[in-house]
Amino acid sequence: MKKWMIGAVVAAALTTFGATAIAQQDASTPETGQVPGAKQKESVSEKGIEVFLPPDLAWEDNPDVPGVQNASGVGDPTKPQLYTSFGKIEEGVRFPSHTHPDARITTVLAGVMFYGAGERLDRVEFEPYPAGSVIYTPPGTPHVMWAKDGEIVVQETGYGPTGSELSDPEQ
Q: How crowded is the C-beta side of 8, counted as CA atoms within 13 Å?
């Protein structure tokens, strides 16, 4: 008798939780991906939380590398504080070997980034990193980013002050 009751309770619980999970999964609208009743951007920003969506960022052309755009996020990278910035690289463009004085955490938001460490493009071995990949680059490490097969969008986080220095300006 006890085994039957335990089995019935477990079956009821699984049915309830499964139905709830399916209902929640189907609750988002395909057009927006938003779940009805979920807090929207306006209510979040009223609490001092900032939301950054790549299409809404103020992208600026990178003066040193054609085909690369940058956008500001949180913090001031020229000051000793945490910052987040964004980069967009057009298909086929390689950001030449460069270094930063600070450690960087790079998250690939869109596309497949080909990344390699080294000072010369002709000696760098590239590895593909799809959207969702997170890469830690120590301070002063020469590295290259390449949008080989399509545009890529990345988010970079570090602790300022920062900057970029090309390893070989002739590249």
A: 5
DSSP per position, 14-78: HHHHHHHHHHHHHTS-TTT-PPTTS--HHHHHTTT-----GGGS--EE-SSSTTEEEEE-SS-TT
The neighbour count for residue 128, using CB atoms within 10 Å, is 13
Nearest CA among 76, 79, 130, 136 for reference residue 106: 136
Strand partners, 130: 112
> Which region holds residue 127: left if phi is over 0, alpha if psi is between -120 and 50, else beta?
beta
What confidence tens digit (pLDDT) does each residue in 115-149 have? 999 988 778 899 999 999 999 999 999 999 999 99
Confidence of residue 39 (pLDDT cuts 50, 70, 90): very low
Q: Is residue 61 a contact partner of residue 87, using CB atoms and an 8 Å limit?
A: no
What's the rounded Cα separation, in Å, for the pair 152 and 154? 7
User: Which phi and psi (to 5°) does residue 59 adopt?
Assistant: -75, 140
Give the position of tokens 């460490």: 117
